[in-house]
Amino acid sequence: MYSVWLTEDEQRVWRDHLTMTNRLQAEMNRQLQRDCGLSLADYDVLVAVDEQPGCRISVLGDRLGWEQSRVSHQLRRMSDRGLVERTGAKDDRRAATVALTRTGRNALRTAAPGHAELVREVVFADLRPADLRAVGRWTAGVLQALSRRP
């Protein structure tokens, strides 16, 4: 039986994880804004759509882990800036799909090297291969546990 409270070690690791995640997202956002005028949300959408062109907007939300309203607002802002285009799905007129525009593809190409450099420098530079595999197993396990929740 589990205690109601996290153990001291669990609490320390959990709080450090939350702090790390928040600080890393803020730093990625600053780097993207400074280097190419994109937000981290813009970049996340560009990457997801690039990996699955013409995906349904509902699928995009699932991939990003975002609520549908957040996806819709983000796509509207990005569409207004010419980064993505929304169209009706060919097989279902009620479903919309999203694709990168030429401007969106160029923005992604411009943003990716600096973003990858930051992530490599801050997250992976001091990580040993065995540690990388352990972190990979841990994150995969958490994601799998979350996917089983209603």
UniProtKB/TrEMBL annotation:
Pfam families from the UniProt entry: MarR_2
InterPro entries, sorted: HTH_MarR-typ (IPR000835), MarR/SlyA-like (IPR039422), WH-like_DNA-bd_sf (IPR036388), WH_DNA-bd_sf (IPR036390)
Lineage summary: Bacteria, Bacillati, Actinomycetota, Actinomycetes, Mycobacteriales
Protein name: MarR family winged helix-turn-helix transcriptional regulator
Domain HTH marR-type: 10-150
Positions in coiled-coil regions: none
Domain of life (superkingdom): Bacteria
